[in-house]
Specification:
Elements (H helix, E strand, L loop, with lengths): L9 E6 L3 H12 L4 E7 L2 H10 L4 E4 L8 H8 L7 E6 L6 H7 L4 E4 L4 H12 L23 H11 L4 H8 L3 H15 L4 H21 L1
Helix pairs in contact: 2-3, 6-8, 6-9, 7-8
Length: about 220
Amino acid sequence: MAEESDDRPIQIVIAEKSPLLLSGLVRLFESDDRFSLVAVAADGERFLTAVDRFAFDVGIIGWEMPYLDGRGVLQALQDRADAPRIIVYTGNADPDVPLHAMSLGAAGFCSKREAPERLVETVLAAADGRMAFPFVDVNRLADDPLAGLTRREREMLASLAGGMTNAQIAANMDISLNTVKFHLKNLYDKLHVTNRAQAVARYLKSAGSEEGAESGA
């Protein structure tokens, strides 16, 4: 992230798939001297490229984006200590999206149905180190035990469920065996389990719940 300074503008990067909306957001923030627009991106992959190239304070991303969606971006940033604070800005009306965004480490959420001033307020709050979300029932996070896992941890969990050994996971992911053990320890802690069998059981239960929800939709 960029260095803190009381008198400098808040540096932001925007990822938005709609060119028309993106142009509107550019005008909104470029007309306000409290902000400095560092870069824009049309999808999640390009946003992550901007994270690698630039130091900035706040990222504004969509939830549904080409190539890599908002969930994928948040998962990719979970292991980065220098990641910018992220605001999910979406027109998705699913009431669970703010909850998922929060569980994955987002700093704020704003609906596209809100006035543009609301997005500005959300960015200001995030830059100030505050969380900015509509009301969400955090107790419901327990309904999705996999919500807080990073992308790598999800991959490892799927590998465990597929019967792969630690050595096979290490070879498949091109990482050391010690790194696999480190990630698995974090994985078990997040799932509140103590061994491989319990972790796989949690994974299968979650997968079964998602399939049931889709069949009933």
